Amino acid sequence: MALSMVCLQPAFSADDRPNIVFFIADDISQDDIGCYGHPVIKTPHIDALARDGMRFDNAYLTISSCSPSRCSIITGRYPHNTGAPELHTKLPDEQVRFPELLREAGYYTVLSGKNHMFGNKDRAFDRITGGGGPGKEEDWVGHVKERPRDKPFFFWFASTDAHRPWSIGNEAPKYAVKDVIVPPYLVDTAITREDLTGYYHEISRFDHYVGLVTAELQKQGVLENTLIFVAADNGRPFPRCKSRLYDSGIKTPWVVHFPKVIQDPSTTESLVSSIDLSATCLELAGIEQPDCIQGRSFLPMLKNPKTKVREVVFAEQNWHVYRNHSRMVRFGDFVYIRNNYPKQQNLCLESHDWPAGEELWQAHAAGTTTARQQQIFANPCPKEELYHVLDDPHQLVNLAGNPQHAATLAQARQLLEAWTAQTGDSIPANPTPNRNDPPRIEGGKILLAGKAKTKNPHAEMPGASNNASKINHPGPILIHQP
C-alpha cells in the first residue's frame, strides 16, 4: 500500500513527545466498568484514570469480533479494508500498522498479551511477548521497568480478561451471585448469575493490572507525559453482545488519561471510533499520517469535550463461527442496523456454548422466554433495525417500521449506502460457511451442536470483490459537510 502522507503540525517537540500506553481488554462492554455506572463491578484504577482524565460515553468499535477488531484498531481502517475482516484472519503484511510508524520515528514499541493479529514477530514492535498469567498481564510492569530510558515508548497491553473460560484468582474481588445484575435479554437463573460472577471477576483483574502499570509510571515520574487509553475489543461474551451490533457488543469503554492536554477532567458525549486511535497517536507524536488511515484524530476533543470530530460512526459484523453480514451506523441518538442475510437467525458463539447462553436456549425451548429474551431467536431476522438509544439503551424496540421515524430511516439508509460505496464494502457471493451446525429444538428440547473438529477455510471476504484493502476513503465523517 502506498504511504501517501497527510502532513500534521507536531503537537510536541521531538524531545518532548508523549509516551503512549494502550490497554485493551477482551470481551468487555462499556457499561460494565465502574466509571460508566455499574454499581457492582469494582474497577477503581480505571475509574481513577477517568476521574482525572476524560471518559468517552459514545465510543464505538468498528466490529464486535476479536481479531478483526484488533486489526482494525492497529491499522486505523475498517475491517473490510484491512484484508482481515473475519475471525481468525491474519493481518496482511502490506497493511500499515500505526505502531510501526511510531517505531520508525524513534519510539520503543512493545506488544504484550493477546495478539490475534500476526505472529510473534512483527515490524511494528521491538518486542512481542505472551504476557503471562491467566489474563496475560503479568509481564506488563516488567516491560515498563525494563524499557530504554532514552526513548519515548508505546505499549500495547492486551489482556485475555474477560474472555471465556473464566479463571478465578487472588488479584481481584470474587462476586456473590445475589449481587449480580442480569441484563433483560438473559434469563435470571442461578446458573446465569454464577456465570456473570466469573465475568465480573475478570474485569476487576484487568483493572488490577491497569493499576499496577499506572503506579509504575507514577513511580518513574513519567505519568504526566504518558497518554493512557483503556478500551476493549468487543462486548461481553454473552448472548446478544459479542459479535452483535447492539451497544452491548459494539460500544467500548474508552477512557483517556493525559494530564498534559486534558486540563479539566470531564466526560464527552461526542462520537469517536476505534479507528481514530491511530490518527490521534500519530498527531501527538508529530508523525505524518498516511492516507491509508481512515480514522480521524480526536485530539481536539481532549482539549474541549464538546468538540465533534465526527458526527457518524460505522460498524460491521462478519463471519464469527457463523455466517453473517450486518452493518451499523450511529448518528444523533439513533442506531440503524441492516442485516444482509435476513433469511437466517443471527447467531453468535456465546448464544449457546456457555452457561448463560444455554440457559437462555433452554428457556426458549420450554417457551418461557419474555419478549425481550425472545428477540435473539428471530428467524428470519429483521432486514432493518432502528433504535433510539437514549429511550431504549438495550435496543429492544425496533422502530424501522414506525412511520413516525420514516425520515430518520431514510437518512440512515443514505449514510450507510454512502459508506458502503466509498469504502468498497461488498456482500460476498461465496461467503465463509458456518463452522458449527446451529442449535435446533426438537420435542421441546434444545439440541446443542458440538464444535467442528476442523476449522473450515475462509471463502470470499467482504470487500474483496471491490479490492477494498486498497481503498483509503474514510466514508462519511460529518452528516452536513462544510
Tags for this entry?
482 residues; alpha/beta; Alkaline Phosphatase, subunit A; 12 helices; globular
Largest sheet: 8 strands, mixed
What's the number of helices?
A: 12
**Through-space gap between termini:** 30 Å
Write down how many β-strands occur, each being a DSSP E stretch of 2 or more residues.
16
CATH class call of the largest domain: Alpha Beta
Strands across the major sheet, in which order? 5-4-6-2-7-8-3-9
Q: Any idea of the CATH topology of the largest domain?
A: Alkaline Phosphatase, subunit A
Percentage of residues in strands: 15-25%
Radius of gyration: 21 Å
Mean pLDDT reading: 93
Annotated CATH architecture of the largest domain? 3-Layer(aba) Sandwich
Q: CATH superfamily membership of the largest domain, which one? A: Alkaline Phosphatase, subunit A
Overall geometric form: globular
Which percent bin holds the helix content?
10-25%
Number of domains: 2
What structural class do helix, strand and pairing data support?
A: alpha/beta
User: What order do the SSEs take from the amino end to the carboxyl end, as H and E?
Assistant: EEHEHHHEEHEHEHEEHEHEEEHHEHEE
- Weakly predicted, low-confidence segments: 1-10
Quickly describe the structure.
With 482 residues, this protein is α/β, with parallel strands linked by helices.
